Amino acid sequence: MSRHLDVDVAVVGGGLVGSSAALALRNMGFGVALLDKGFCGAQASGVNYGGVRRQGRPLEQLPLSQRAHAIWPRLKGLIGIDGEFLRSGHLKLARSEDDMVSLEAYAATVADQGLDLELIGHNGLRERFPWVDGSILGASLCAGDGHANPRLVSAAFASAARRAGAHVLENTAVTGIARNGESFALEAGEGVSLKARFIINSAGAWADRFAADFGEPVPLTRIYPSMIVTEPVAPVMTVNIGMEGGGIYARQVERGNCVVGGERALPLDDPDFSRPRGDGVLAIMNRTAEVFPALRHAQAIRFWSGTEAAMPDRNPVIGFSDTTPGLIHAFGFTGAGFQIAPGVGEVLAELVRDGRTSTPIEAFSISRFSRPTSPADLDRTRYGSGAGPHPEPQPRGAST
Amino acid sequence: MSTRPQPLVVGAGPAGIRAAEALVAGGLRPLVVDEAPACGGQIYRQRLVPDGRSTRDLYGSEVGKADRLHAAFAAFEGKIDYWPQALLWNLRDGVADIVVAGATRRVSYDGLVLATGATDRVLPVPGWTLPGVFTLGGSQVALKAQGCAIGSRVVFAGSGPLLYLVAWQYMKAGVEVAAVLDAAPASAKLHLIKALPLDPGIVLRGTRFVAELRLRGVAIRTGIEGLRFEGEGRVSGVAWREGGRERRLACDGVGYGLALRSETQLADLAGCAFRFDERDRAWLPLRDAAGRSSVAGVYLAGDGAGIAGADAAERAGERVALALLEDRGLAFDKARAAGLEAELARIARLRDALEAAFPFPAHWAAAIDDATTLCRCEEVTAGTVREAASRFDIGEINRLKAVSRVGMGRCQGRMCAAASAEVLAAATGKPIEAAGRLRAQAPVKPIPLALQLAAEPAKLPEAAE
Question: Domains of chain A (ranges plus CATH)?
Answer without folding.
Answer: 3-63+151-219+312-383 (3.50.50.60), 87-146+222-310 (3.30.9.10)
